[in-house]
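Reopening this one. Same input as before:
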Amino acid sequence: MTSPPIASDSALAVRPSLRTLPLILMYHAVADPASDPHRLAVTPARFAEQMAWLAGRGLRGVGMGALVDAMRAGCQRGLVGITFDDGYVSVLDAALPVLRRHGFGATVFVISDMLGRTNEWDRPGERDRPGERDRPGERDLGPAWPLLDGTGVGELARAGIEIGSHGATHVPLAGLPAAALAAEAAGSRAALGSLTGREIRGFAYPYGSVDPAACRAVRDAGYAYGCAVAAPPGQLSLTALPRIYVGQRDGAARMAAKRRLYRGYIALRGARQ
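Same output, byte for byte:
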C-alpha cells in the first residue's frame, strides 16, 4: 500500500481560537470493571446517558476528522468531538451500539504496536504516570483491560468510526529524541494505514505529553491534527487540540457544567502548562 498523502502546510496553518473551540470529549473504556483506580471507565449505562444528553440538546457527536473539517469551514457549531484513547475492546462492544443509535461518529486512537494486547503501561512496577488522572505519590495499580486487535480495529473502521494513532508503544512524547518521535508518529501512522487501508488523519499524545518537538513530529508525519489534554492558549493549534476528560461521575449536571465552563477550563489548564 502506498503511503497516505501528507497534510499540507496550508491545511495545518489554520489556528483555532479559544473563543470558537468546540467541545471535545476524552473517553477511554466503556465498561464496568471490578477495579478502576485511574477512573478511566464509564459504564455502558452511563455512556448511554451521556450520549442521550448530547442528543437531547441538539448536539451531534462526531469524529475528530469531521470536526476539524468543520472548524476549517467555520461550521463547527452544534458539533462535539468524541474521542477514545488506547483502543479498548469495550469501545467496539459497548460504545459503538450507542453511537449508532444516535447517528454519532467518534475517533478511536489505537496503539499500533500493541494490538490485541492489554494496557501493560498500567501494570504494577511500571513508571508513575503523569497526567490529570494520577494522584501524587500513587503507583500504577490498574487491572489488565484488553485492547482491540487488527480485526476489531477494522470492524470499527468499516462501521464509520475514525481510527487515529495513539503512538506505537504508548510512551510520553515530550523530550524524546527525533528518531524515537518519528517512530512513534510516522511509524504508527504507516502501520495503521496499512491495517485499515485508510488515511490516518489524527494523533493523540499518550498521557497528554506534548512539547513543540512532538507537535512538529506529528505535523511532519502528515497528520491533519493532534489531540492533547491541555495546551497553553497561545499554543492552540490543529496539532495541539485540548480535550476534557469524561468519567463515570459525569451525569447530566456535570455534563452541563463541563459544556458551559469548557473554554474557561481549557484556558486555566493551559495556563498551568
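So the earlier flakiness isn't reproducible anymore. For the record, Residues 252-271 form the longest helix (20 residues).
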